[in-house]
Amino acid sequence: MKKFFFLILLLTVIVSRPYACTNFLVGKDASATGAAYITYNADSYFLFGALYYRPAANYPKGAMMDIYDWDTGNYRGQIKQAEHTYSVVGNMNQYQVTIAETTFGGRPELVDTTAVLDYGSLMYIALQRSRTAREAIKVMASLVNEYGYGSEGESFSIGDPEEVWILEMIGKGPKNKGAVWVAERIPDDCVSAHANQARITTFPLDDPKNCLYAPDVISFARSKGYYNGTNKDFSFSDTYAPLDYVALRACEARVWSFFRKMDTTMNKYITYVKGETKERMPLWIKPSHKVTLHELMLDMRDRFEGTEFDITKGVGAGPFGSPLRCSPLVWTYNGKEYLHERPTATYQTGFTFVAEMRRWLPDPVGGILWFGVDDAACSEYVPMYCGINKVPECFSPTNGSLLKFSWTSAFWIFNWVSNMAYSKYCYMIQDINKEQSKWENKFTILTPAVDKAAAYLMETDTTAACDFLTEFSDDQAEAVTHAWKKLGEYLMVKYMDGNIKVEKDGKFVQNAAGIPPTIDRPGYPDDFKRQIIQANPDEFRVKTQAELDNRKQ
Q1: Could you tell me if 269 and 259 are in contact, meaning their C-beta atoms sit under 8 angstroms apart?
Q2: For residue range 342-396, what is the model confidence (pLDDT) as tens digits?
Q3: Residue 375 has what DSSP assignment?
Q4: Which of 138, 242, 343, 511 could be a cystine partner for 303, CB 3.0 to 4.6 Å?
Q5: Residue-wise over 507-528: b if at least 16 C-beta within 10 A, else e?
Q6: Using one digit for the tens of pLDDT, what is the confidence trace for 75-106?
Q7: 256 exposed, middle or buried (CB, 10 Å; 0-12, 13-18, 19+)?
Q8: Cα(first)–Cα(last) distance of the chain, in Å?
């Protein structure tokens, strides 16, 4: 009976694999300012987008910590509590250490259903216990060795102002504590990415400065019959997460889209993501230019525009370029499997961020979690300094829920706007982009001044500096949320019933009685008209007068 239930669980894992989340990583020397970056779109139909704050704390020796599954909220067990923990804002701690993830799944039989730690708990506990990225890797490895790892295979992005790493990990199966894993440091002048497919292939076995791994990562594979080659030829990804077509087209394609913007020579890998050629993309590349913060925000909003995968094109996009596709991602018709394109920016995002880690500033000032909620393409990134001591009410995890709408919750305001925009996307996204640009230009001016003032305060009064950063971050979050509510009201008025109200100098044109003298009726584009006619050649054709004159009696 136990074996039966375990098989059911594994089947559920395989069927429900979400192909969710995207991470981009930028080394400090690859960026325009010298900052290191990690980005994260946390994509899930079950994730309420909120910003959590965990204050630093001291605990008595022997204290225990309850573990609850990050995805389900179910209780998993207890572990020993650290005597001191660091403060954490979202996915960045007080030392600017940042951790993000994407799930690659891998071999389903390696999920340890008896383990205490899931991937979410592992991330946030490591943030509470680590002063550097390298220390976080060691903390995570130690924790899973002691308490087991109970999730599917994960790719973790782990960074601090000096180093950025990718750690890939998968369990060893039920009642088998520990995990097999490899961590590689991204060269400082390079960028990397992962998106629900393990990306570490072969790795150096004798370079602990740049590569760390579980001592049994290869021997365990041999014991399971997954691998029988030499150590130097061992590929983590090919062994523990073999590629299939969906992994290429729905996962690796997002990495490709990022890489091609970093270096146009990466365009050649389009044949790889289409399943036509076998040569894999490198784990990292050196960009042809210095990467900017604003550029990364745009990369997180990518919908494959300008490529043959553009999700705002084709019959699935409807007449107005909607990126919305009915789930599931993979679907069946007449016994054959098909899929929708899966871009970086997607409608089921709970929260999104660009973590900026700056080594030349005091930690509370140097770390900024540029945080947003919902679909990154329709969202706004707001600066949340890692030195803040509370989160804005609009981002609070107790302000609304997935089943409770709140007009003061950023998650619900942004979802309201984006879901409205999907109906006439090619028009409304232009208004959304204008609002995004306005705020991002404002933050470009404000944050350097805030950095300077906070750094000055840090010299004499750390508490005052953190209070100052908290007030600033809070004010900006609430202001942006209010602005998006006004944006939603504006979009409703402008595009009501599919027509477009005419504007002049930023105001709706109206007569003395407040009535618009005219409205735009753009109608359907010719391509969509063609689809209607092809499906119903004569159904909607207006008959000529001659045809009417020749009607039967």
Answers
A1: yes
A2: 999 999 999 999 999 999 999 999 999 999 999 999 999 999 999 999 999 999 9
A3: -
A4: 343
A5: eeeeeeeeeeeeeeeeeeeeee
A6: 999 999 999 999 999 999 999 999 999 999 99
A7: buried
A8: 75
The three-state secondary structure class of 323 is: coil
DSSP E strands, 10-63: 23-26, 36-43, 53-54, 57-58
CA distances from 507 to 432, 488, 490, 510, 515 (A): 16, 15, 10, 9, 13
Give me the phi and psi of 472, to 5 degrees please. -65, -50
Q: Burial letters for 406-417: b for 16+ Cβ neighbours within 10 Å, e otherwise?
A: beebbbbbbbbb
Strand, helix or coil for residue 412: helix
Tokens 């995805």 correspond to 71
Contacts of 295 (CB under 8 A, 6+ apart): 261
CA angle 304–306–311, rounded 5-degree value: 40
* Count of residues making up the chain: 553
C-beta separation of 276 from 300 below 8 A: no
Task: Extract the tokens encoding 262.
Answer: 């970093």
- DSSP, collapsed to helix, strand or coil, labels residue 316 as helix
Cβ-contact 230, 221 below 8 angstroms: no
Q: How far apart are CA 468 and CA 454, in angstroms?
A: 7
Cα-Cα-Cα-Cα dihedral sign, residues 208, 213, 214, 220? negative
